[in-house]
Each structure stands twice: as C-alpha cells, then as structure tokens.
Amino acid sequence: MLPNDKFKFEQMLREQKKVIMLSGMIDEDTTFDEIMKLGSPLIFNFKGITAINSCGVRNWVNFLKAFGENNAAFEECPPTVVKQMNMIPSFTAGAKIASVYVPYVCDNCDAETMALIDVSKFSKGKFSVKETIPCEACKEGEMELDGHPAQYFSFIK
Ligand SMILES: [Zn+2]
C-alpha cells in the first residue's frame, strides 16, 4: 500500500472553530479514536478523501454515533463521499452538511472539473445547481453536470 493510500487527518482552526482535514482512504484499518479526543463540535473536511469501503463506512457511522451527529458538520465532500451519503443515511445522520463537490464534464473536450456547491440552504426538493458551466479547458464547450441533480442531492433532508 502506498503511503498516500492511508488515512490521515490534520487539525486546523478557522474563526475559533476546529476543522479536521481528512485525507486518504477510510477502510477497516481506519480508527477515529484520536479525533474523538479532540472534543466537539468539529467540522469535518472530506476534500482529501480518495476512497471509502464498506468497512470504512461502518467505522465512520459508529464514530459519528459516539461523537454525536449534532456536533458534526461536513464540508467539501467529494463525489465518493456524496455517494455514501446518498446510500447510507446514517453516514451523515443529523450532521450539518455545508458544501459538496459536484462533477462536471465538457461535452466538447471531455475535460472534468469539480464545482464546490454550498448546500447549507438547500432543503429536500429545493436546491439549485447549474446544469452547465462554461469549459475553461477548451473555452468552447459546455460542461454538463455528471449525473442527475435530484439523485446527487438526495442526501439533503
Ligand atoms: Zn471543453
């Protein structure tokens, strides 16, 4: 296993709030004991998470239950995390979701990009996201949302 495949986290402070930058893979070997010791509330930044397997999901769900979902906020969740959020309601439980990355693909040059979307004001069935954005790579094509918004945002309660 390459070192960058392992799970890591870093703590930072943003306006007096503790932000935990998660990175790497969440799997059967991932423990959140060290994060638990940091106290709450915490903001979990998932930007650096590259993969989660089913054992990792179980570890995370157990951690969140013990940590207290009301003391947790999620931000910058990449598609691999959003997928779990949509499939497994207890992955987020009652945690506050601040922002997620939405994948776009260019219809002209196949370039891919991720747009960070603030979902904090979205509610069930009430959200707005651009279906297309201009392509920065070829400057000609339109980038289309890769997937169905209603499906992608089904984690919103
Ligand atoms: Zn393009």
What does it look like?
It is globular, with a radius of gyration of 16 Å. The model has no long low-confidence stretch (mean pLDDT 94). It folds into two domains: 1-97, Transcription Regulator spoIIAA (2-Layer Sandwich), CATH 3.30.750.24; 103-157, no CATH class. The strands form two sheets. The chain has a five-stranded mixed sheet. The protein contains four helices and nine strands; from the N terminus they run E-E-H-E-H-E-H-E-E-E-E-E-H. Strand 1 (8-14) and strand 2 (17-26) form a beta hairpin. It has 157 residues and is an alpha/beta fold. The site of zinc ion has 8 residues, from loops.
Structural class: alpha/beta
Provide the β-strand percentage band.
Answer: 35-45%
Task: Catalogue the unreliable spans.
Answer: none
Largest sheet: 5 strands, mixed
Bound molecules: zinc ion
Named at the architecture level, the CATH assignment of the largest domain is: 2-Layer Sandwich
Rg (C-alpha, Å): 16 Å
Query: What gap, in angstroms, lies between the N and C termini?
Result: 37 Å
Count of the domains? 2
Query: Helix-strand pattern, N to C?
Result: EEHEHEHEEEEEH
